[in-house]
Request: fold
Amino acid sequence: QVQLVESGGGLVQAGGSLRLSCAASGRTFTNGAMGWFRQAPGKARDFVAAISWSAINTYYDDSVKGRFTISRDNAKNTVYLQMNSLTPEDTAVYYCAAQSTRLYGSSWYDPSNYGYRGQGTQVTVSS
Reply:
């Protein structure tokens, strides 16, 4: 059974940093993609960042470019999201997602293209 378990969320003041981790178990995602999405109350689940298995390709939503960095450790089957310069607008539940096959083009940004999802971790940024 595949599981994605997120950790690292919490409460932080504006301007602060958090590092999220997502550990996958049950299978490896060779040649696949891993990513992060977030959902604020009353809003849709939005794309945040994604990374290819080789880590050569990374993708970011414009709202987090320059502030967030996605990385992965394939030996640990883990993906990370370093979040800096956080603002209250970053407050949301952050979800890890993984897909066992390659993604192309705009498919990176659509959560429905990821076959596996975690339960989420809450990030709250106070002003």
Observations:
- The mean pLDDT is 94.
- The longest strand covers residues 18-25.
- The two ends are 40 Å apart (CA to CA).
